[in-house]
Amino acid sequence: MTIPAATATPRAQALVIIVAALGYFVDIFDLLLFAIVRVESLKSLGVAADQLKPVGLWLDNYLQVTGLVVGGIVWGILGDRRGRLTVLFGSIIVYSIANILNAFIADVPNAGWGAVLHAVGLGGAIEQYGVLRFVAGFGLAGELGAGITLVSELVSKERRGLATTVVATVGICGAIVAYFVTRVVEWRTAFLIGGIMGLALLFLRIGVVESGMFRDAQAKDVVGRGAFWLLFTPWKRLRRYLAVVVCAIPIWFSVGILIKYCDSISASLGMPEGARPTPGLAIMWCYVGLALGDLSSGVLSQLLKSRRQALLSFHALTVVSIALYFTVGATSLSAFYYCAVALGFACGYWAVFVTVAAEQFGTNLRATATTSAPNFVRWSAAGSAFLWTATERVLGDSPNSLWQAAVIVAAIVIPLAVVAVFFLQETYGRDLNFVED
What we know:
2 strands
């Protein structure tokens, strides 16, 4: 069924917002689940205490986010060539199956079917974990971009910002629920729950309609639909795309380094062993702040009638919250968790970021850009992790080198993000029924 944005019924608009919001909820649940159960799962698989950080970085900040960026490109292209709904259905099947399989990883004997797994390098649980984190990342990459693209094209330009804010705010709560789920079930069961929730969403999506803008571009055989390389030429379009990606890097630096590895950083800051934060609880409190921040940033961009001003306001808050993280946060455990909430709130401009990504580009490249850009931002966690560990080595074996390296990385990524905002077009209220040359 084809329904242009201008004539989409309120029911059709409400359904696509609900489906996109719940889809992103499951996306975040599964995306953050490894970070929450990282220590518990790796210990149960026999990983030594001194290897929890490097193995965790490899599985999460390298393998999973690499799957995200590869998937972001593939699903984005499919979204512009085959339709937004194709991506919504396809991506959820991939990551749901990957997470269900993740619940059954184990070292297998080198005999029978186990010999086949050993032959392809998957005889060990950690190797299986790595492959499934990559595959899950690949699948998860398509969810948000396709949902935001569909919402942006079906909802009126006056309400578009509020609609995407609802999607982002509800979705962020997935991490909060994931934390509480892991408090009552063990990590394998949590992966099963995440996968089953994803498959259950397939039935809800049956009534969702395709974007009229996409169908119109498909019927007219518009040139360049899903041509990823067009994002890199001419220079003005590439600059716009890079600006979209770079402006959101502080979000994933804060979550991917400062929050996920708060146990290591807090030790470097001198917090006593019995009073250090745990990554799972820190993620939960951070995402409470993120949910409130997403709601606030989205509403602010509507009130100011400016996406750029909202982004700059929250970048300023990010600077303040990171300063509090390294100073006030180190004084006590309760103070740290308060700072985690503040940091999450300040980084809660993801709603505005994904809206900007959708609004910057024409219908023939919108899904490609909106799906790939968030995943390049998530991939930046690998770059941040590399800079963090490399800087730590340069600083030497000092107990303070870990947190000092994190401060240096923050001092690099935040100014770049602020500068990037000035290269974005102001897109509040833009009519999205156009195509890129």
